[in-house]
Amino acid sequence: MNPDMEQDEARLLLIIDRDPAQARAVANHASRDGWRTVCVDECEAAIATLGTQEGMQLTAIVLDQSVPGEEACDLIAEMKSRRPALPILMLTASTSPQLAVEAMRAGATDYLVKPVGPEKVMQAVAGATRRGSPQNELAPLAEKIKSGRDFDAMVGAAPAFRSALAVAAKAARGHGHLLIEGESGSGKETLVRAMQGASPRAKAPFKLLNVADLSASAVDSALFGHEQGAFPGAFDNQSGALQNCDGGTLVIDEIDRLPLASQVRLAEVLETGCVRPLGATYGFRIDTRVLACSNTKLAGLVEAGLFDKDLFERISSTRIELPPLRERATDIPALARHFLAQIAEQPGLRQLGITDSALALLAAFDWPGNARQLQAVLFRAAVFTEGDALTSEDFPQLSSMVLPEPQKSATNYSEHAGVMLYTADGNLRPLEDIESDVIRLAIGHYRGRMTEVARRLGIGRSTLYRKLSDLGIDNAA
C-alpha cells in the first residue's frame, strides 16, 4: 500500500462539542473526506482522550467554545502543553477579535465564527493538517478582520490590478449583471462591497450568498424561495435571496459550484425578471442585480458542458478578472502596511512597522491563498511578536519554505521593498524605469488616490496622467 494512503487512512479527528447535531454533521463530513472521528462533550473527557492509545493517533482537534465557555483558552493551552504539534480549531459564536487573539496565543491554529457549515470546518482542518503547509502561520484568519467598503480598500498599483479596478469602478455605476473571476483570496468579496458602496443601489438590499455553504438540496430554496409543502420539511412559505434583494444587489459567490439545474433556472429568472418559488404556480417581478463571483474561469466550464451557456451570457457581459497576488508581487509592501494598519485596530493588538527584510521574505513567497493568506500571516505574526516592527524572524515557517533557494535573499527582492536603483551588474537603472517604479509605489501607497499621489510627488494631476500614459501605467481614477 502507498505510505501516503496509509497516513491518510490513519487521520483521526477529535470533536469536542455538546451539540449532538453539529458534532454529527462534522463527523459525517469528515468521514466522507476519509477521516475517523472521536466525539466528546466535556473538557475532562477531551483531556483524558489525549492520553489514550487512540488519542496518541489524533491528527487534529475541533473545539466548540460552548464546552469550556470562558475557560476555552485554558483548555487550549492545556491540550497544547500535552500535544504541542496538534492543530486545534475553535468554533465560537463570538465575533470578538480579542477572543481570536487570546485563543491564538493559547495555541489555537484557527478560529471559526458560527454559524459555519461542516464543509467549511473540514476545509479549515484540511488546511491546518496539509502536508508541507506552515500550519501555524497560514491558517485562514483574514475573515475575522472587517475590510473596507470602498475602493480605497483595494490596495495595489500593478497594471492588471488597476485595469480590473477601472472596469469595476465604471461598472459599479450601472445596473447590469456582471462576473468577477479570480482565485480564492484574491479580493473578490472586498471588490463587490466596494462596488456596492459606489452603486446607485448602495442603500438598497444587499446580500452575499456563498453556494459552497449550501447543500445541493438547499440551493434552490435559498435562491428562489419555496411554498409550504414544496418538499419534505417545507413547513411554511419562504422568500428567496433573489426576491429579498429586489431593488438591490445579490452577490452569488462560487457560482461555478451551482448545480446545472439551478443554473438553468437562474438564467431564466435573469432573462424574464420574474422569480417563482419552489412549488408555486405564480411568480414575482423583481429588479435584482446579480454580481457573480467564481474562483475558476467559467468560459472553460461552458466549453466542457459544466456550466450553462445561457447563464454565462447573462452574467458575463461585463467580466472582471482579479490577478493572483503572485502576479503583482510589487504590491506586497503596500498591502502589508495596509493590513497591519487594520490589524492594529483590533483589541489586544497594536501598531507595528515592518522591516525591509520581512517585506523581502513576503515578496519571495508565491501566496497560493493570495491577499487573504497574506493578511492571515501578518495577523498571526502580529499576535506573537514582541518587537515594534515585524522582521523576517517573525515568519519562521515562511522562511523555511522560501530560503532553501539561496538566491532568494533580501538583496534579490529589494525591488519589492522599495525602488531598486541598480541593475544586477551594479550599474544604475534607466531613469524612466526608476520613475515608473516610483509612480507605481506612490499609487499603491496612497491607495490609488491620484490627487494625493500627484501632491506627494510634487507634480500636477495633468502631468501625472501624462506620465501614466507615457509609461503605460493603468489606473482606476
Mean pLDDT: 83
* End-to-end Cα distance: 59 Å
Rg estimate, integer Å: 24 Å
Count up the helices.
21
CATH architecture of the largest domain: 3-Layer(aba) Sandwich
Structural class: alpha/beta
CATH superfamily assignment of the largest domain? P-loop containing nucleotide triphosphate hydrolases
**Percent of residues in β-strands:** 5-15%
Overall number of domains: 3
- The CATH topology annotation of the largest domain reads as Rossmann fold
Portion of residues in helices?
A: 40-55%
For the biggest β-sheet, the strand order reads: 2-1-3-4-5
The biggest beta sheet reads: 5 strands, parallel
Low-confidence stretches: 1-8, 132-142, 404-417
Main CATH class of the largest domain: Alpha Beta
- Using the alpha-carbon principal axes, give the shape: flat
- Strand segment tally: 16
Oligomer: single chain
Keywords: Activator, ATP-binding, Cytoplasm, DNA-binding, Nitrogen fixation, Nucleotide-binding, Phosphoprotein, Repressor, Transcription, Transcription regulation, Two-component regulatory system
Subcellular location: Cytoplasm
Pfam family, one: AAA_lid_14
Domain Sigma-54 factor interaction: 154-383
